[in-house]
# Entry
Amino acid sequence: MSAPLVEMKNITKKFPGVIANSGANLVVQAGEIHALLGENGAGKSTLMSVLTGLYKPDEGDIYLSGEKIAFRSPKDAIKAGIGMVHQHFRLVAPFTVTENVALGLTGGFRINLDKLAKEISALSHDYGLQLDPEARIWQLSVGEQQRVEIIKLLYRKTKILILDEPTAVLTPQEAHDLYATLRRMAQEGCAVIFITHKLQEVMDAADTITILRGGCTIATMSKKDTDTKQLVQLMVGREIEHKSGVIGGEIKGNTILQIDSVHALNDKGLPALKDVSLSIAAGEIFGIAAVAGNGQRELAEVITGLRPYHSGSISVDGNPLKPNDPKASIDAGVSYVPDDRLGTGLVPNLDALDNLFLKDYRNPRWGRFLLKQGAFREHAAQLVKEFSVSMAALSNPVKMMSGGNLQKLLLAREISAAPRVLIAVYPVRGLDIGATESVHKLLMEQRAAGKAILLISEDLEELFLMADRIAVMYEGDIMGIIPKHEATVAELGFMMAGAKRREVGA
Amino acid sequence: MSSSNKLITWQKRLAPSPTMTVAVTVSSILLALLFGSVLLISTGFSPLEVYHDMFTGAYGSTYGLSETIVKAIPLMLAGLGVSIAFRMQLWNIGAEGQFYMGAFGASGLALAFPSWPGYILLPLMVVAGCAMGGLWALLSAVPKAKWNVNEVITTLMLNYVAILWVDYLVYGPWKDPQGHNFPLSARFSPGATLPAFGNTRVHLGLVFAIVAAAIIYLALRRTRWGFEIRVIGENSRAASYAGMNIRRNVLLAMFISGALAGLAGMSEVAGITHRIQHDISPGYGYTAVIIAWLAKLHPVAIVLVSVLFGGLIVGGYTVQTSGVPSATVYMLQGAILFFVLGSEIVTHYRIHFGRKEEE
# Structure
């Protein structure tokens, strides 16, 4: 057997405070479609950035066809026949397809666009990529734009093609066509690597699968030797033990948050929530498990009024919530800990005082016309103490604070608003163990105080630890709602991969 | 070694210190003067002499100082105006047009009701000036809020419409029949004239500007509206997360922005020219943009920087008598802005010599 087309050995890449890859391995043969599977933050993108010459690895070696290479820049990687289709396309919208392919071509000073257009037609015919070389990029659908990116790489005789979550933006039919094209390229002797966290995609298209978790390669296996159940387990980690006795399974109070048949679109105008219904009782933590991009973020946004929904209803304490009005949600007692702390939940350049004030500034207790800053400063100092947020001074911009303290500050604000409903999205992402514990403790205290809590997480271990009931979302649909004590990782994994609960037979 | 380990690197500072900011601003103004002196030398003038004459012309006598303040009044008002829009990242470049429309609104009243007493007519002129300037800004703000139309283009283009509209009036229907065919309106009645201090031309507009600066200073720090403006300007996603109405604030901020520029136009016709005429503003609305930036949008600093720029204009007039072209003033204005903006890299980054520490 000849040397593999790509071999990455023991790759380690560190960033300040984060180890993105540690001892990651990847072997890709010519002629195969290779899926790189892993959760967000598992190190897939970093590993591919190393392969495309964007990052230099701290340790480890890369071999192409058995020959050791060291890229100094992405240019070297392109020369070696490595090409990548990014999630966000790099195309010039007012230019035609042909002009976009011509961009960045090296060689002579003059380019013969007519000849190039003919070559593009031939390539698109050969690989089943329907495309008009004269069309302008802005006229094309997202799927067609992706074809342009692939044509660009084909034209440059790319041997190793990397695609970053290629089907995230495609319709099922477009995805199907894409798989056919990738298969065709593999038959020509190319190696195709695609980054994904979607199990269905892996089972549909891949020959070989490499699973990354926490920056390390967990396993490489042939598709025919595995199934989605095993893949989920490898992706999320070991079978999680039940931490029994921490919380009872029964639901204590009346229903607080009620969601009925809500439909909503995502930012790209595609359906993100399809007929979602759920209810959360007082004193209950309702967990949502889903692979990223399956509608959980949109769910949080419709409840908090940040996203419109076009049918269905949401009510808090029996009172319908005015749709798409964040202030109405706040007034109804919905507190929100968004996943994007510094981008949405906090204002990085303003100080801790202003950030604690972000929602409560309307409260008449801080003055009728002029704001009583002294009174608020006292209140803020008390909050900081109560939630043990450590900071240099209340008047420092919050961007200088650590992740854990930022999250505590955010929780201090959201909890001190005395909410009815608390929505927490990935509340411990990126936090160290100590901070994770304090965040979890705060959530449990809120549960004990009779709040309805929606906890969205990608970490099954966290859900098993915290939630009373766990719902699995897949492609905007709730696949099933299971009381925690009845749930197993295997079953949740099946549902995260798109199986309805009844099909599992529970 | 990879290319990121250079010997000299720029590192972002977390927060520039206030003393540092002032020191760097002052030294960049000095650098701008140095740059200007190269041009002055190359055209055969002695820079020291020119700068000295400019300075004494602008600040060295009661008359000079009063004229400097006369020029600073419209700059203060328009500068405060654009600063409000800028705080919300709304790039209102239309203060010039809003100035003309404010002057138009006030003049319309003054010319229509010359017999009214000042205590009725002047407050109404203030209202008309603010309203016309504010509405002119809303013409850009509404498309911005509804369809996200770029306000830089619309405010800029509306400047030409406003200027030419006033030109049409003073060359046409409003032209003074006794005006020897000059493009200017009839003189306002005494009731439409802002009182002046002593025997200078410094008029009540100075009080308007200082009161406006004080109100803005207080409003930004101590009111709910000011808090919303600060949050929206810094992070509009967080603002909608907190339930703030961004559209309404865009409209409101642009209206106030235009209203202050309109008030500048009103106080100029009622306080200085006592009529509306062609070329009523020598670019106050554009200079206001420079002033707001140099003052880092701080209301008190805008008042001070306006006095500096008023002095630059008056000093420019002074040295014209000795043959220095008037364009020198605009060149110096441009150079000051260039150097001060360029200096931001020094206040926001620190230069680091030697290798980056390995993580």
About this structure: Residues 1-6, 355-359 of chain B have pLDDT under 50 and may be disordered. Residues 63-324 of chain B form a domain with the ABC transporter involved in vitamin B12 uptake, BtuC fold (CATH 1.10.3470). The beta strands of chain B are 8-12, 349-353. Chain B touches chain A at residues 2-3, 14-15, 218, 222-224, 227-228, 230-231, 234-235, 237-238, 240-245, 359 (CB under 8 Å).
